[in-house]
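GST N-terminal domain-containing protein, Pseudoalteromonas holothuriae. Tokens?
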Amino acid sequence: MQLYGSNTSPFARRIRMFAALHNLPINYQHIDIFNEQDRATMIAHNPARKIPFLIDNTNTICDSGAIYRYLISQFQLTHMSCWQENQLTNINACNDSLVELLICERSGFDTQADQLFFNLQRERVEAVLSDLNEQCVKSDFLNCDYLKISLYCLLDWIVFRSLTDLSSFAALVQFCEAHANLPGSTSSDPRI
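Tokens:
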């Protein structure tokens, strides 16, 4: 199995860490989506032009959620409950909004402007982080390795990119610090 992703992508990182935790036989290949050759590789395998994607023989699986479901099926690992899936949906929504804001900022837009799109993204980020601040201490959350990994990757990416102030979310800050040594966290650190 070959996983393609960016070293700075929290979505690729969560799959790398999940594979490390379960000792799954997955090779990782960094691709730079702004490099012409790497971009061509991405486009050839994923018309949505997103990373990560996984190639397993003749199967190409796109999106971290689909990759996760494929891996738990292939290796007969524990599925998430409906409540846990909802928490993952919230993590993904926050991550997606922050990606959109980062891309807009890099494109020269003032993402702090009082504009509907920016307001909605900032509102979603704040609401989801507030909810996750309450949820991340519950045993149903802490008993799911993929949820812990996904939240850790989001929080560490927020800190890495200086995307928002987490100081008002004490449980999230504590969660991030407590889970900094998850398997694969060092080898997938976007700072290296």
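The CA atoms of residues 43 and 49 lie 5 Å apart.
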